[in-house]
Amino acid sequence: MGKTAATKGKGKALSAYLGHIHYKDAEGKDVIARGAVWCETRADFDAVLEAHLADQSASFLWSEEVHEATDWLKKHGHNGLMAGLARKVDGMVPVALSEPKAAHDETPEDESYLIIEEIENVEPLDMQMGVYPKLTVPAALQEAIFGQPEPTEAEIEAAGGNAENVPTMGTYAILDAACPIF
C-alpha cells in the first residue's frame, strides 16, 4: 500500500492531514507521535499510516484529532511542529512523523504561541511635530511589537533543521473603526 495508497486518485484532491498517532515501535513499545499524511480522506489517513508503519516494522494502533491541515491549525491554533510536518508531505513523501515519545509519558501539550508580557512605563506618542521619521509605536514597544524572537528547537526542526528557513514573524493589528479618535 504505502506510497501507492497516498497517490491513487478517487476524485477528491490529495492534501495534508494532521493528527496524533499511537503505535507500537519495532521493539514493541507503545509510543505516540504527531504526524502528517498526504491523502484524500480521514479514513485514508489511517490506511496510509498503517502501511508506512508496517514498512518500519511498527504496528499502527489508532489515531485521533485527525483533520485536514488547515482545519487542524484553525482548531488548535498555529503550531510550528504540526505546520512543519504538513509542509513535508506530498506525493513523493506521503508520511512525516515527529519524534515518538513513550505512550506512558505524559503527553506534552502543544506549544502555545501566546505569550503575555506586561510592559510598564510606556508613554503614548505625542503629535511628533518636527520628528522625522515619525514613530508608529512608542520606543519602549518597538522590540516587543516588531522584534524577531529566536526560533524554538521545534520550529528549526520543522524547517528542515536550518534556523534560516524558519519564517519571520509578522505584526498584525485589529482596528476598531467604531471607536472615535479625538
Q: Helix and strand layout, with pairings?
A:
Layout: H1 2-7, E1 15-24, E2 30-39, H2 42-55, E3 59-68, H3 69-76, H4 80-88, E4 95-97, E5 101-102, H5 142-146, H6 153-158
Antiparallel strand pairs: 1-2, 1-3, 2-4, 2-5
Can you describe what's shown?
It is built from 6 helices and 5 strands. It is elongated, with a radius of gyration of 22 Å. Strands 1, 2, 3, 4 and 5 form a 5-stranded antiparallel β-sheet that branches. It has helices at residues 2-7, 42-55, 69-76, 80-88, 142-146, 153-158; strands at 15-24, 30-39, 59-68, 95-97, 101-102. Residues 1-9 have low confidence and may be disordered. Helix content is 26%, strand content 19%. With 182 residues, it is an alpha+beta fold. A hairpin with a 5-residue loop joins strand 1 (15-24) and strand 2.
The parts where pLDDT drops under 50 for at least 5 residues are 1-9
Treating each run of at least 4 consecutive H or I residues as one helix, how many helices? Answer: 6
Describe the main β-sheet briefly: 5 strands, antiparallel
Shape: elongated
Mean pLDDT: 83
**Class derived from helix and strand content:** alpha+beta
> Could you state the order of secondary-structure elements as H and E?
HEEHEHHEEHH
Number of strands: 5
Task: Note the gap between the termini.
Answer: 66 Å
Radius of gyration: 22 Å
The helix content is 25-40%
Per DSSP, what share of the residues sits in E-state strands of 2 or more residues?
15-25%
